[in-house]
Amino acid sequence: MAERRSEPRARKKAVVVPEMGRMQPQAREFEEAVLGALMLEKDAYSIVSEILKPECFYEKSHELIYAAIVDLAVQQLPIDMMTVTEQLRKRGDLEQVGGAYYISQLTGKVASSAHIEYHARIIAQKYLARELISFSSQIQNKAFDETSDVDDLMQEAEGKLFEISQRNVKKDVTQINPVIHDALEMLKKAASQEEGLSGLRTGFEKLDKITSGWQNSDLVIIAARPAMGKTAFVLSMAKNMAVNFNIPVALFSLEMSNVQLVNRLIVNVCEIPGEKIKSGRLENYEWEQLDFKIKELYDAPIFIDDTPSLSVFELRTKARRLVREHGIKCIIIDYLQLMNASGMNFGSREQEVSMISRSLKGLAKELNIPIIALSQLNRSVESRQGVEGKRPQLADLRESGAIEQDADMVCFIHRPEYYKITQDERGNSLVGLAEIIIAKHRNGATGDVRLRFKSEFAKFMNIEEDNPIYEFPSGGSFSSPTDASLMASVPPEFLAQGNNNDVPPF
Q1: Of 206, 454, 242, nearest to 328 (Cα)?
Q2: Global confidence as pTM
Q3: CB 353 within 8 A of CB 402
Q4: What phi, psi does 144 have (nearest 5°)?
Q5: What pLDDT digit, counting tens, does each position of 383-394 carry?
Q6: Neighbour-count burial of 67, counting CB atoms closer than 10 A to its CB (0-12 exposed, 13-18 middle, 19+ buried)
Q7: Catalytic residue annotation
């Protein structure tokens, strides 16, 4: 008889928030109804298992009872009044919840589990409301503390809010018919394009052929060792996408300022050596070349953010606004290891990078656009010997294996010339060539693509475009010189002429 009680012995005290003078959100009757239904219907747990966790229950006794039910479900044992009572006894919690009598009372308060999902969602909503109240109260107290750094507090607030939202986001299953419709629409869109691409074009034709363009919702990792040209590659690609195809692109640069980045774009587009852009010592023909080619960049849909030490939570906020206000179709991040997840606690940097990569993949899915993140490789590449030994591998990704797991595609940039390898196994020259190695492709083929790399202009281009012809407003046309001094020898009268065929070839 010691177990017979009409009320549980231990119950959470009703907490009153002093600043608000209100009771915390709770739904005691719904908690009782759900627990009673779980012990009456054998399939009831499968309905609420994805909605409720033990901590969702406000009453401490109800939390313990649901925890015992979860234990039984994990062991695939029957869930009823007797088994729950026995499980609570094993856990040493039976007295704390009010004994077997209180368990029997719960089953007597509900007739069926017909509305259990609706009741469970109410309990989950009350739990979420309590989490938000607790979170806002903590932030409020810290905001009143004048010793707290406001910027750090904002980072912490954003991180905690993101954590709460992630814990409570659930996506319902979708019947296949609308998904088939979406897939057919993508197929028709690809068929309508001359190149047969279903994604965004990069301007690198052989790369586009393998990938079918960057696909919406994909996380693409582009990795390389320092000095391989990661930033040059994405700048060349961003220029192609924005200028050639009018695709709005957002570039988050954590390493360079926006002016440095634009200077590199100017070098890339105008094909004037970087040291001359820095010093401003341009020849007359180079000023004309600059004035003519830089017009391509004006009004280009390229949006640059150079916030240092950007957090993944700041990125989410900015990315949503860019998509909403500017119709951004692709986001580029330079580079992943410089990001952080401020406001959240991690046991190691590897765990933090894992969180960042998962968040980037989640953001790509949420915004339904490709996100391209640059990544560093570890030093193991340098220690390997031989031509093949210098080629990057998936195991070389720095700081976290989660990057490889989360990414839909992993590409490496490899320039054999950097390692003094100037010929391939067939004796072909590798000078000025770069390989884009597609090492992982979740939805397609892997392979290698060769591009031309012009180091003096920090520019990647199709091999077929190596010597484009430029025309100046003043008349005349000529190939882009590989030696600036050669161009300086062109007499001024040639540049001043109208269109003719007398311009000396290079």
Answers
A1: 242
A2: 0.65
A3: yes
A4: -75, -20
A5: 776 666 677 878
A6: middle
A7: 255
